[in-house]
């Protein structure tokens, strides 16, 4: 892009790169036109004054208070003063843990403790039935789930207490490394994603638009077309209300308790992104991160590789706090055309108040809110986890997502349940 008179080519290139950064990272609706407007705005201010440059770019590139907040953060990070040190990178407090779906190597046995009264038990790798989000501790800090049903051989002792699922947020629950997932089952996931997109029916738009077949004659366009045929209206133009195109917002629980289910659901989110460009994907564990730019750049048919997601993958679980953050961060993009899918086992360690507040906001603004749980695929499942109980009044559907069969049946279950 050509720099305006009086503006250096280096600064013009940096501004263009900054516009691309806002578009890719945060979904700003910016293009070459906005980049040119930004360069022309800089031609009217003193580019040696940082505040004037920031204010000029903010006026051109933002359209809401939320975008202005994100703009200020990115501007301060992108246009650091000469000699200003970058933010410090602190070393991890504990070694990084492996992300869900990554094979764990066997650890050597731990030495016995000197205290004979303390028993150490080896635990298997975390699965949806055995949360690995934390260490054993006081019951007051733990979230307890309903028994998933008695097994066939449980009638030997009817008074035996049912198995429960417990989870606790460990203070050392850090993020866990890079993520790799083979795409061998991509065709199956694409079929499930296509069925879901086709099943969504949100009705028709309130606004009329030109359509090949509509319910209202477009007299203006018809007369214009008649001018090409000597005033004879041989071609009629119509107006109609097109079907509302759905948006999808997927929020994936990447904590250790999700195990391999997190890997499958992330590949399903990637397949849905390939079938519809109106898809936003977030992942959370103890923190929240946006995965849409990473999935957008992932080549289909090859191994899905994601960089280290930090606190958003392979750590503990804070569903309510992260959903509340998402509800406020995506306030502009969640509307009556948005279907929100929460992909989680519901084993939360946070406050239920945050969960209720987040679900109330999402339910108020979104078209549908659906919870997909791997635990719901188990026999005799009862949704009594604290997070799921708090979310139930605001859900349009709570459905199983324990494997490929559940993903194929997702569209049909949503239509039968009236959620679509």
From TrEMBL:
This is VWA domain-containing protein. Residues 132-141, 150-160 have a biased composition (Acidic residues). Residues 113-123 have a biased composition (Basic and acidic residues). Residues 245-409 form the VWFA domain. Residues 164-173 have a biased composition (Polar residues). Residues 85-94 have a biased composition (Pro residues). PANTHER family: BLL5662 PROTEIN, BLL5662 PROTEIN-RELATED. Pfam families: VWA_CoxE. InterPro entries: UCP010256, Uncharacterised_CoxE, VWF_A, vWFA_dom_sf. It comes from the Bacteria. SMART domains: VWA. CDD domains: vWFA. Residues 79-182 are annotated as: Disordered.
């Amino acid at each position: 892009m050509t720099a305006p008179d009086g503006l250096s080519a280096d600064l013009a290139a940096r501004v263009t790169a900054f516009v691309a950064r806002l578009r890719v990272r945060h979904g700003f609706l910016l293009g070459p036109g906005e980049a040119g407007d930004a360069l022309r705005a800089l031609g009217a201010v003193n580019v040696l004054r940082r505040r004037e440059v920031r204010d000029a770019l903010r006026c051109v590139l933002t359209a809401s208070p939320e975008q202005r907040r994100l703009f200020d953060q990115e501007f301060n990070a992108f246009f650091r003063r000469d000699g200003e040190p970058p933010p410090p990178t602190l070393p991890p407090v504990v070694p990084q843990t492996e992300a869900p779906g990554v094979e764990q190597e066997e650890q050597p046995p731990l030495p016995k403790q000197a205290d004979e009264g303390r028993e150490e038990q080896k635990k298997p790798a975390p699965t949806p039935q055995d949360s690995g989000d934390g260490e054993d501790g006081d019951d007051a800090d733990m979230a307890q789930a309903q028994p998933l049903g008695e097994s066939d051989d449980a009638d030997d002792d009817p008074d035996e207490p049912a198995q429960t699922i417990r989870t606790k947020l460990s203070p050392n629950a850090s993020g866990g490394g890079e993520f790799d997932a083979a795409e061998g089952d991509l065709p199956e996931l694409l079929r499930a994603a296509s069925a879901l997109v086709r099943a969504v029916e949100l009705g028709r738009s309130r606004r009329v638009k030109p359509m090949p077949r509509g319910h209202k004659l477009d007299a203006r366009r018809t007369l214009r077309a008649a001018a090409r045929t000597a005033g004879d209206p041989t071609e009629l133009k119509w107006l109609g209300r097109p079907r509302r195109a759905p948006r999808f917002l997927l929020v994936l629980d990447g904590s250790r308790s999700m195990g391999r289910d997190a890997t499958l659901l992330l590949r399903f989110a990637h397949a849905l992104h390939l079938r519809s460009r109106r898809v936003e994907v977030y992942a959370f564990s103890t923190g929240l991160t946006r995965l849409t730019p990473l999935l957008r750049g992932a080549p289909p048919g090859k191994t899905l590789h994601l960089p280290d997601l930090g606190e958003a993958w392979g750590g503990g679980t804070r569903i309510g706090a992260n959903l509340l953050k998402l509800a406020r961060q995506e306030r502009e993009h969640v509307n009556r055309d948005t279907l929100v899918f929460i992909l989680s086992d519901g084993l939360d360690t946070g406050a239920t108040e945050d969960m209720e507040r987040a679900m109330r906001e999402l339910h108020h603004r979104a078209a549908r809110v659906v919870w997909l749980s791997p635990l719901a695929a188990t026999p005799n499942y009862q949704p009594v986890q604290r997070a799921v109980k708090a979310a139930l009044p605001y859900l349009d559907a709570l459905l199983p997502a324990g494997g490929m069969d559940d993903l194929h049946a997702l569209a049909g279950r949503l239509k039968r349940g009236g959620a679509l």
